[in-house]
Amino acid sequence: MTPSQAGRFAAGAIGAAALAFLALWVLVFAENAAWKDWYTFITTTLNGVTVAGLYFVVASGFTLIFGLMRVVNMAHGTFFLLGGYIALSLQRSWVGKGDIGLQSSDINRFFVEWVLPLLIGAGVVGLVGLLMQQSLLRWNQGQDLRQALITIAISIIAADLMLWKFGGVAKDIAIPQRLDRFVDLRVQGVQYSVFRLFILAVAVALGLLLYLWLKRTRTGMVIRAGVDDRAMVQALGINIQITFAIAFFVGSFLAGLGGGFGGSFGTLAPGLDGQWLLNSLVVVIIGGMGSLGGAAIGALLYGIVGAYAATYLPAAYNPYSIIFTFVLLAVVLAARPLGLFGRPA
Amino acid sequence: MRITVERALGIAAVGVLVAAPVLFSTYFVSAILTQTLWLGIAAASVVFLSAYGGMVSLAQVAIYGIAGMALGNMVAAGGSKGLNLGWNPYLSVVVAIAIAVVAGAVFGAIASRSTGIYFLMITLVYSVIVYYFFGQVTQFSGFGGVQINRFPSALGSPTDHPFRLFYVALVAAALVYALIRYVVTTPFGTALQGIRDEPVRMASLGFNVPVHRTLAFTFAAFVAALAGILSAWWDGLVAPSSIDLNQTLNVLVVAVIGGLLRIEGAWIGAFAFALIDNYLQGIAVLGDRFRMVVGLVFLVIVLVSPDGIMGAWDRLRGSLRRPGGPENPVAEQLTGPGG
Q: What is the complex's ipTM, to 2 decimals?
């Protein structure tokens, strides 16, 4: 065993030990440990899994773009926020009560006042992404760092424009009335938000659709071939530029859609672009860049670790919960520098 | 030593800086030039890593934030937020730098087996995590930040003695520049450049690639920590908001504007940034849209001359000098193969 292998083995062992300890802590030792309080455990787990669904929607777009084009879109969080803001503006103008905060009781028309604004917001963001790719990224393919810097510049400019247009106050998208209720899960008396379960279902459905798209359609096959060997695909007479454009549209669309969901889940405010860039980065760094399955696993790990850290740390240590994100990242990277499902370029 | 145009310009710049308190207004010296010097040191740690280590790091703001935050907590003795440990100001500086260097070593070790764009992403995550950490752990950061209300006796308060801080920053910048120029000529420095260009070959020659990268990152953390101490003194306050994502990007913008491949560029970029930062807000139309202008300047630089002002300068003079040769992966990812 070489020193490097030994190091990785040690890192893996430490990671496994840390995970085992965390599991024991949550199940047995914490003040509100699972065996004493199944209600909290189930709710926390569901919180983690549903937020993971949202992470997955956003991060899958990021990983799709990177996997095919090696473009790290640092404006991905910006696209998230933009999609949310557009959906919010459309919802407010279509409900017709003026530019004020709406309640779920105002949203009676599920499709027109919620689904449609989100889809249009995502579509516009998809077009913005496509425009950015065609005008600023298409002619410098292969210059990874330069492309990342270009998207950073775009994110700085767009963040300021959004602050100008939408202001600095946190706003949220009202969720439709028919989703704003709780369902009895018939386990330990847990009542859970239908809206959060709905988002989770959408995320799973989107994941399946993406999987089928990549595995079963011609475009998907070209994308997968392009991930492995771009030059060979071009040599076969396939116009890979069109595939790049499609992938960039879909990737940006997913960020914008995530923004609509995220704005309904929580809020939209300046600074959340950075937060969601972080979320996407953490998910794909853990899962492995360019891997859809990796994004799903990464989102689950990140979501659940975050939810447990917030609930099971003793109250005095609660502010330190962000450290667990770092520990998760450190353990994964120490054992697998390219992420759990990452492959070398 | 041969007198080249560059050396002549460099010597002239240092001469002007030494005489700056006589030549310029107090505001210009304390607001713009002092900021240029410490921001340049922070950017120099980025440029060192990219030019000689082939790694573009976004974690330098996190590291200088750790140094500044540690200094604030140790030095304040009542009357401030944070821990108010009330330590000796000189001792506090040493311990704060030590803490930041240790943090840098840990960060570097974790990221050491990642390169290129992965390295950029991982270090960005570090930066955001450190920002959220200080934002949430208010024992250390006291919501609005920790005031630096005690200074080493030789320095005095920068509001009373602005030129002293300026000269301290000038000496620190000169030392950092000389130290980097020295380190890259040592056996460690040449090995680092070898690893930058040919990691596999260097590994087969028996060099431990991750350890060299970690050490380079640790050294850069030391440089960034110096910038953190100077910025804390300069600002009089260390707050989570002064190490947020915007500031992380600012330091990157400074390094890119100056040029990611030449150390000198760090201070040139910092000077350009300090000028924009101070005078743009005075222009009524643009005042509120300061960030947008920064973004546009950044975009133009990246589109026109991705290796920054120093890169443009080298092209102008027809001598594309990339430190250590044309194989630097950072150069390739910036301007394309052989470009």
A: 0.90
